[in-house]
Amino acid sequence: MENKPKILVIVGPTASGKTSLSIELAKEFNGEVISADSRQVYKGLDIGSAKVTKGEMDGIPHYLIDIADPKDTYNASDFKRDAEATINDILSRGKLPIICGGTFFYIDALLNKVSLPEVEPDEILRAELEEKSATELLTILEKLDPVRAGNIEKDNKRRLIRAIEVATALGTVPPTSPGDTPYDVLSIGLSVDMETHGEILKERIKDRLQIGMVEEVETLIKAGVTHDKLDSFGLEYRYISRYLQGLMQYEEMIEELSNKSRQFAKRQMTWLKRDGTIKWFKRDDKHIMHVVKDFLG
User: Fold this and answer.
1) What is the CATH number of domain 119-175?
2) What ranges do the domains of the chain cover?
3) CA angle 15, 269, 118 (to 5 degrees)
């Protein structure tokens, strides 16, 4: 039987050090990095998505960053298609593909841990649904598919609209049934101390605001990105959009964003802990290099 090609996957909650680790490993093991991040794919979502800068890349090629217009929609099926093509390209040049990012559904889709419904976008239905609030969308989904409505992110309009689209086409949103992955995978998880991580996230938000995160959102609005679309990007884009609409005060925005970021990091850990194949480390653990070296043989 032919050996499966080896790839590395780096996961962990937001602000756990995934980006810097992926670059260290790429330098050490002749690797190139594929970003698995549902916001970094979009041009102009830089500060709010903590997009890696050219300087931080330190000469290591990065892929699937800045490949979509923020007025368009890029989903897990798009990522799976693009990531597979990129992995094949990296492997063809004798290098190690390193998947790094915080959109774990994208990674699960790539590794065939979930199945993706083959339903084409319905632009007419989408335009109709865009006019509705998240609460109204959830009510529609509950009627179509109560099971999916029970486990979806209830304030994420983009996901709600896609679930309604799929349920309308197929009757229900198909259950996620795993298949075989075409790769030999080492998944490294970076753990954080949740007690102190909230403060780290709050400081990071303040730092980003100082370097122009509000101005970034203003630029997106001027380029034609709607407040509804910004809301669908979640966290930074959602709450800065609300602040710019006059729906909250500046300090209130920081508090709300800090609280929601902390909750998001906890949800990320809950998602990851379901996966028994992930090997967990602290960011500064020197054993990571040895584990990767052993895996690569």
Assistant:
1) 1.10.20
2) 119-175, 194-266
3) 100
What pLDDT does 86 receive?
A: 98
CATH number of 194-266: 1.10.287.890
Model confidence over 170-207: pLDDT tens digits? 776 666 556 788 999 999 999 999 889 999 999 999 99
Which of 100, 9, 70 minimizes the C-alpha distance to 232?
70
Half-sphere exposure of 150 (CA within 13 A, CB side): 5
pLDDT digits (tens, 9 = 90+) for 216-255: 999 999 999 999 899 889 999 999 999 999 999 999 999 9
Kindly report the three-state secondary structure assignment for every residue of the chain: CCCCCEEEEEECCCCCCHHHHHHHHHHHCCEEEEECCCCCCECCCCCCCCCCCHHHHCCCCEECCCCECCCCCCCHHHHHHHHHHHHHHHHHCCCEEEEECCCHHHHHHHCCCCCCCCCCCCHHHHHHHHCCCHHHHHHHHHHHCHHHHHHCCCCCHHHHHHHHHHHHHHCCCCCCCCCCCCCEEEEEEECCCHHHHHHHHHHHHHHHHHCCHHHHHHHHHHCCCCHHHHHHCCHHHHHHHHHHCCCCCHHHHHHHHHHHHHHHHHHHHHHHHCCCCCEEECCCCCHHHHHHHHHHC
Model's pTM, two decimal places?
A: 0.85
Give the list of residues 6+ apart from residue 167 with CB closer than 8 angstroms, or none: 141, 144, 145, 148, 173
